């Protein structure tokens, strides 16, 4: 299916695009709120500025996709593949990214306030200047993750999970704080 067909079906009220192949599709600045793209192939897609709030992207392949400036607030991205994706200045507030693969993803200035990143693969990801306040990082792999300037207030993480990470600025000695808000 091409982008025009997708947009026609969405405009007609269809929301289920489970497993769809949208490899390298240009969906920039498009409103697809509430759609189901579970298991879809969006690798290499241009989703800059798109509104995907409330979408189901669980198990979707977004390898090397560009989602800079997109809105994915309250979306389900559990078990998503975001390896090498550009997520600069993205809104992922209250998003479920549990068991997601974000290796080497660029999350500079991303808003992940209140997001669930439990058991996520975050090695090599760049969270510089990101808002991770009140995020759940239990069981996540933060090996070589860049956290310079990130807001980590209220982050939930176990002490042993921080031992191999590159930067830990902002964490209290108890590893969990309750300051800040989304």
Task: Give the gist of this structure.
With 182 residues, the chain is low in regular secondary structure. The protein has one helix at 3-11.
Structure in words:
Helix content is 5%, strand content 0%. The protein has 182 residues and is largely without helices or strands. The longest helix is centred in the N-terminal third of the chain and has 9 residues, at 3-11. The protein is elongated, with a radius of gyration of 16 Å. 52% of the residues are buried.
What is the overall pLDDT average? 90
Cα end-to-end separation: 38 Å
Poorly predicted spans:
163-179
The coarse overall form would be elongated
Strand content: under 5%
Output the helix-strand order.
H
Structural class: little secondary structure
Helical amount among residues, as a percent range? under 10%
Detail the topology: elements first, then pairings.
Elements: H1 3-11
Properties at a glance:
182 residues; little secondary structure; 1 helix; elongated
């Amino acid at each position: 299916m091409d982008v025009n067909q997708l947009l026609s079906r969405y405009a007609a009220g269809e929301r289920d695009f489970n497993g769809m192949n949208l490899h390298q599709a240009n969906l920039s600045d498009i409103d697809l709120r509430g759609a189901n793209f579970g298991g879809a192939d969006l690798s290499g897609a241009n989703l800059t500025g798109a509104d995907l709030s409330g979408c189901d992207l669980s198990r979707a392949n977004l390898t090397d996709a560009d989602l800079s400036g997109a809105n994915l607030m309250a979306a389900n991205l559990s078990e998503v593949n975001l390896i090498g994706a550009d997520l600069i200045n993205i809104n992922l507030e209250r998003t479920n990214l549990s068991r997601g693969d974000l290796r080497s993803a660029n999350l500079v200035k991303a808003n992940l306030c209140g997001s669930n990143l439990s058991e996520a693969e975050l090695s090599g990801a760049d969270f510089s200047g990101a808002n991770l306040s009140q995020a759940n990082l239990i069981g996540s792999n933060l090996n070589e993750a860049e956290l310079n300037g990130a807001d980590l207030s209220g982050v939930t993480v176990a002490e042993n999970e921080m031992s191999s990470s590159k930067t830990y600025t902002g964490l209290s000695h108890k590893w969990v704080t309750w300051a800040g808000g989304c």
